[in-house]
Amino acid sequence: MNSTRVKRRTVLRLGVAAAATAGLATGCATLTGERAGKHLASDLELPEPFQVRLPTPRRAEPVSPGRFEVTQRVADVEIIPGTTTRVWGYDGMFPGPTFDVRRGEPITVTIHNDLPAPTSTHLHGGVTPADSDGYPTDLIVPTGLDFQPGLHSHMEVKEWRLHDGSREYEYPLDQPAATLWYHDHRMDFTAPQVWRGLAGMFLIRDDDEDRLDLPRGEYELPLLLCDRAFEADGSFKYPSIDDSLLGEPGVLDEYHQGVEGDVILVNGAPWPQTSVANTLYRLRFVNASNARRFELSMDDLILTQIGSDSGLLPEPQEMATVTIAPAERFDVLVDFSRVPIGSQVVLRNRLGADGTDVVMRFNVDREADSGATVPTRLVEPVTVSPDDEVAARTFRFALTHVDGHEMWTINGRPFDPDASLASPRLDTVERWTFTSDFHHPVHVHMAHFQVLTRNGKPPAPEDAGWKDTVDLRPYEVVEVAIKFSGHRGRYMIHCHNLEHEDMAMMANFDVV
Ligand code: C2O
Ligand code: CU
Ligand code: CU
């Protein structure tokens, strides 16, 4: 890295981080604990759980076949009962509208930006051409906004791509049925902009999935989980939210580990409840939190996992709990016929405390049959053999001294938009090894992978299937077989703790 290119603000922001981490190194329990971020307490009086009904974000409707238009705008919504929260939402919604689309039916999505700041939209899990992948410096700048990109990065960026007011993204959707999500990806500002509301769900369906008797319609519940904190006036609280519009990113101080709010939201509602029938349901979990990991359990009910980040598993697996790191997705079946009508089943988070240990409640209050069964086989397994691997590479996710300052880095380097760490060839498989010094949910764009080993042992149950994000805890080593099929071009690998990502734990690779 060329140190003269590090700008003064880096020194300001990460100088503080360095001081805070010095404390960590001398024995703070969080470094090896299950907590992946730092608790941020609301100033607002919080509601009792289960007061609010579980919302279902409305479905995104095409303006003509295959063409969608979404406007990012500010909206005032009621999240905490009796107060108003200003959100930045896709169509003014938080979460944004849910896309429900089919494999092999390409779509375009035109995003209009009426927010007071630039944005970049990324379809997480999408096998998307590089030009439409939501690169952090490929921005939609609101018309009339005086945006000076040169000021806004921890490094000088030679090239910015700026679109005036709107742009079109192309999604070929040539990939298996899966639970994806979309969110903001603006350089240096992803964490505050997602926190303000820029996230939504994106479901891809296909014929293989249709052939299975999975719960459909009202028996299928996409559930976007995240945490937030609130100011006394109901607005979102975030360590740097006031200076995160146009100027320099705010200083995160001791929050450089990641920000965890004290309110758990499901589909944008605090600790909601919903009524369910005594039958089989499909719950499609997305962890859209900046930093929070959940270990989900449902009282005595078994969670039968049928899908991972990138699609259905070859066969279901039964889990007592499911640990889900930021950006991971778990598709599970839950059988509410196992409890009597009148039961209340609480979805809990075993990694939480003082309120964050509860997520939502299901009230089993009626008799009905979803007509679905738990299939014994789901999809044909596609396995990669070691013989397929043409290269091996290691990516170290760690806090590193760079010019006397500590930064979240990959292989010792903070994100440099002009550099690339790897050039895998299209349609090949490589073995990638990820190592960590803290909680780092490692995410790769475009390419999907299978976990081969975790700490030299067989993968964890949560590692099953094709994935795009893997949960690394402190000092773990995970090996994956990663397949580069889809598109050539420049893509990213990064930590999906959004505070780490904004603080430069990100790198390019080029599919050639
Ligand atoms: Cu979900 Cu690069 O992101
Ligand atoms: Cu992604
Ligand atoms: Cu990280």
Describe this structure in words.
It contains four helices and 34 strands. Mean pLDDT is 91; it is low at 1-32. The chain is mostly beta strands. Strands 12, 13, 15, 16, 18, 20, 21 and 23 form an eight-stranded mixed beta sheet that branches.
Percent of residues in beta strands?
35-45%
Shape: globular
The count of DSSP E runs of length 2 or more, i.e. the number of strands, is 34
Treating each run of at least 4 consecutive H or I residues as one helix, how many helices?
4
Q: Give the mean pLDDT.
A: 91
Task: Give the CA-CA distance, first to last residue.
Answer: 23 Å
Residue runs with pLDDT of under 50 for 5 or more positions: 1-32
Largest sheet: 8 strands, mixed
CATH class of the largest domain: Mainly Beta
Ligands and ions found: CU-O-CU linkage, copper (II) ion
Radius of gyration: 22 Å
Fourth-level CATH superfamily of the largest domain: Cupredoxins -  blue copper proteins
Examine the secondary-structure arrangement and name the CATH architecture of the largest domain: Sandwich
CATH topology of the largest domain: Immunoglobulin-like
Question: What helical percentage do the residues reach?
Answer: under 10%
Helix-strand makeup class: mainly beta
Number of domains: 3
